[in-house]
Amino acid sequence: MTQELLAAALRALSLGAPLLIAAVGAIANERAGVVNLGIEGMMALGALAAFSVAVEGHSPALAVAAALGAGMLAALLHAVVSLTVGANSYVSGLALAMLGSGVAGILGRRYEGFPLLDPVAEEPFLVAAGALAVGLWVFLRFTRPGLVLRSVGESPAAADALGVHVTAVRYGAVAFGGALAGLAGAFLSLSYRPAWTDGMTGGMGWIAVALVIFVGWHPLRAVAGSTFFGLLYYLQFRLQDQGRIPVEAFGAMPYLLVVLALALSGLRKARGSAPAALGIPYRRGER
Amino acid sequence: MLELKGITKRFPGVVANDRVDLTLRASEVHALLGENGAGKTTLMSILYGLQRPDEGEIHLDGRPVRIHSPREALRLGLSLVPQHPLLVERHTVAENLILGQRGSFFLPRRPHQQPLPVDPDARVEDLSAGQKQQVEIARALLRGARVLILDEPTSVLAPPEVDQLFAHLAAIKARGVAIVFISHKLDEVLALSDRITVLRGGKKVGERERRDATRDDLVRLMVGRDLLPPTAVSPPGPGVRLDVQGLEVDADNGRRAVRGASFTLAPGEVLGIAGVAGSGQRELAEALAGLRPFRGRALLDGESIAGCSPAALFARGLAHVPEDRATGAVPALNVAEALALRTYRSTGPRLDLSRMTSEAERLIREFRIAAPGPETPVRLLSGGNVQRTILARELSGSLRALIAVHPTYGVDVGATEQIHRLLVERAAQGVSVVLVTENIDELYALSHRVAVLFEGTLRGPWPSAEVNVERLGRLMTGKDAA
Amino acid sequence: MSGDLRRLAPLGVYGAAILVAFALVGGVLAGFGASPLECYEAILHASFVDPQGRSEVLRRTIPLLLIGGGLTVAFRAGFLNIGAEGQLLLGAVGAAAVALFLPATPASLPAMFLAGAIAGALWAFPAAWLRTHLRVHEILTTLMLTPVAEYLVVYLINGPWRGEHVRGFSYTDAFPERLQLPVLEGTLVHWPTLALGAALAAALQVLLTHTPAGYELRVAGSSPKVARYAGIPIHRVVFLAGILSGGAAGLAGAGEVAGIHHRLLEPAQVSLGYGYTAIIVAWLARGRPLAVLLTAPLLGAILAGGDTLKTGFNMPFRIIDVFSGTLLLCLITAEALWARRERRGP
């Protein structure tokens, strides 16, 4: 029995790992005040980049690097459009989600149906996920650059008046978030399901965005939150075969729970704990 | 130590600084005195790198410097303590102090050596305004500031905190720091400064050593004339139009912003309410305009206005010119639509567009709104014309009472004159006006009676002839017992 | 710049943005190994020259018209409804319920559309309620309900509503003859729905510009501060705009099953991504419902172009997402740059 529970727990963790990685990245850029809804697209690009490099026979490290780079590049595009050009950051993220998924789907066509002969072990990713969560927590809470990042997200005007380069900090945070989204995608295509399929990210990027709100922008709580959703996914697979509850209900469950989680966050007035300047473009005030 | 020479800065429609010179010396407190809109804040924002001057030079220790950003200003040893604290509210004091400094990767336990008057682990949002200011000053000193710029430092302080601040500044001065502080309050300037520079209308009109300065002298320089202009309004009618008793209003943070305000207004009477920013004016105005709940009694022509929506109040003849132009008109819509904001429901299920347009054309002519036509988007209008639009709308219809908050703030001279004339005309027609303003000139020019809000308490009203500027200043800072 | 030129300039800017988007997508096409010029030529030919192709464009325009009109109003009120896809599916479910389980009467077709509208509005209700009562941003809540709608449809067609004579695929029984919309000869263009879409766009335009409710919506969407100052009930306005856009999407869903499929099918067959593409339709319309009469056919042509590319160039249908995303990016970039220019002053 405990064997089973342990196995279930491990599966839950590995199902939650991509959520956690993507969420940690999103926490970083949202704490700096920038919303990035394009995580789903960046995950897809990362997954494809990693897979395409690995399938050509290169080392897993290079594949992961490719994923990081792909995610970061896409995120930088979002940064340019929303920070420098000043367009609506919510819509910019949405557009990138579409674009990223679309480009990945197109360029990945040639890789469909070829499983990876040498899949990467899941454990390094799980460890990395946990390390990233803890690392971000330490960074935000105990380091000087972390304080700067938090201040930029709470009150960019105050930070600017003290000589902080608000835009540079935000660019950095967005790039980091994108890289992590790419890493989450790499986990999916190199380890979890070592193959490439169009749409393999399956909405995880969106759930990661909601997860950030639900855990109150706290990296350690994101570990618990992502494990919870991982458990849900696991239950979805396990309980599929029993007859009474229609299988579609399980499929729909994560999404319904996201809505519920968001509603609960609203009740808890979690928005009050959002970084004060989240989603608001910063322009040095002129008269 | 620091010299500004010939600083000139122009904005569309107004010259904010006109060839201003200023010299700052170490271990000296230099006051920059002037009315609101005289150009003090602009000058200091140029010094701090938030704005670039159109003409003029800045010299530090004899060398010319260019200050392009706050970062450079900080590097040169200039620190600004703004009027409203610019701190990260949700963070602790210690975190705010560290934010400015360079140092180790990991956060130190204690960012400072000297004891602080404030608990370093307290969250800034829980501090009083005076304490926040002390954090700002402490942070500036930690950065090794040589010049400390204080923008209206006492505007949000209670009297005991003001004394504390002055003592603190004296100590800082003794350490060799040059202190500039911006103010429009004579008493404090006289109490604190070693030298005083007076600005009026963007120009420097005088500089005095403290020992050579007298109160009347400074008033004359600030205001430009010895006597205050005679009130241009015609006497009010009989009866009571607006009756306010024991008004209590809460601010957004739950604290009481207005404590038991009481006054009555006759038809055609103008009541000028003065007060430092944050004394409860906004909450008072919003309560009377139907935007904020209140306790107590408020009657318009005998009927209560409690719980009425702004639209209902307007239908009853109560209009509101808001503090912030962005609240009064939508930039994305056009002038005709802005003018219809109060009357769009009156024509039933269909918006009568042609009537809106012809009304707009009429109001554009009558109020001299400089817009190409009713279809012009509001965002293309200058500040003065947006204000004219708002006034045109609020002053139309069968008006009985008007709440006007800073009606000429940031508006050029021509529009200001026109707005004053409009208010006087309406008052002569029997409209009661509650005028909230920081502009002393405007206050005396338009009001029959004046009152002062200090920390939520309304002092007065008295006939304006009975309250001179000095007394007004004392009332505004709570130093007058009356 | 003279007044007239100034008014036309934004159009030019957006036109330029669209052209830039097409150029960028051309790059992706090249990356896939196809010649962009050939691709675009094929799309143009299919959209304008080939009669069969033209009808395909028109067929796709119909739901885009309906959804786009509703979304334009929602966006103008500041309600970013991203879940129109799910609301469309619920509309299809509602219409199918009436068609399959209620006796067929002359009133049935209108009843189907009514049921579709109500179902779509209901599906938008949670997000609208959460936004106005708990200040939860609607982007996530509307989006998350779309997969739920998809699962619901799959459940119904595989389970309780499964058709009797089904082989292999999943679908319900066919709707009775009387409840199938007429189409243009030889095409799938169910013109009553097209007329409904055009009428709705016009009606919404009139609502926005000629009624007090529309005025309130425009003020509330542009500047909540001013709306509050004037006593406009912002929450009610946003809520109603959200529900309305859901209802319009529901109408589109009803149209699809009543006009083309005559049964409830798998989600991917009921909607070819209309709910998402309509976002671009609405964004391009810049807040004017009547403009969807222009933007819906444009996006309909792009959607049909995706099919052309799929069959002619073996390109995955995902290219549509690339189009949508790029177009949206170029549009908001152009908007922001233009606004920046205006802020700097004339």
Main sheet attributes: strand count, strand direction, barrel closure of chain A: none
Low-pLDDT windows of residues of chain A: none
| Overall form of chain A | globular
How much helical structure, as a percent, in the residues of chain A? over 70%
Order of helices and strands of chain C: HHHHHHHHHHHHHH
Number of DSSP helical runs of chain C: 14
Give helix and strand order of chain A, one letter per element, not per position.
HHHHHHHHHHH
Number of strands of chain A: 0
CATH topology of chain A: ABC transporter involved in vitamin B12 uptake, BtuC
Strand content of chain A: under 5%
Number of beta-strand segments of chain C: 0
User: What is the residue-averaged pLDDT of chain A?
Assistant: 89
Query: Greatest chain-chain interface?
Result: A-C, 46 and 49 residues
Number of helices of chain A: 11
- C-alpha termini separation of chain C: 8 Å
Shape of chain C: globular
Describe the structure using short key phrases.
heterotrimer; A: 287 residues; mainly alpha; ABC transporter involved in vitamin B12 uptake, BtuC; 11 helices; C: 346 residues; globular
Topology of this protein?
The complex is a heterotrimer of chains A (287), B (482) and C (346).
Chain A: H1 2-31, H2 39-55, H3 60-84, H4 89-107, H5 123-142, H6 144-154, H7 156-161, H8 166-192, H9 204-214, H10 219-238, H11 247-267
Helix pairs in contact in A: 1-5, 1-8, 1-9, 1-10, 2-3, 2-4, 2-8, 2-9, 3-4, 3-8, 5-6, 5-10, 9-10, 9-11, 10-11
Chain B: E1 2-11, E2 14-24, E3 29-34, H1 40-47, E4 55-60, E5 63-65, H2 70-75, E6 78-81, H3 93-99, H4 129-142, E7 147-151, H5 159-174, E8 178-183, H6 186-192, E9 195-200, E10 203-209, H7 215-223, E11 242-250, E12 256-265, E13 270-274, H8 281-288, E14 295-300, E15 303-304, H9 310-315, E16 318-321, H10 325-328, H11 335-339, H12 353-366, H13 383-394, E17 401-405, H14 413-428, E18 432-436, H15 440-446, E19 449-454, E20 457-463, H16 469-476
Parallel strand pairs in B: 3-8, 3-9, 6-7, 7-8, 13-18, 13-19, 16-17, 17-18
Antiparallel strand pairs in B: 1-2, 1-4, 4-5, 9-10, 11-12, 11-14, 14-15, 19-20
Helix pairs in contact in B: 3-4
Chain C: H1 3-32, H2 36-49, H3 51-76, H4 84-101, H5 108-134, H6 138-158, H7 191-210, H8 212-222, H9 224-230, H10 234-261, H11 267-270, H12 274-284, H13 292-313, H14 319-343
Helix pairs in contact in C: 1-2, 1-14, 2-3, 2-13, 3-7, 3-10, 3-12, 3-13, 4-5, 4-6, 4-10, 4-12, 5-6, 5-10, 7-8, 8-9, 8-10, 12-13, 12-14
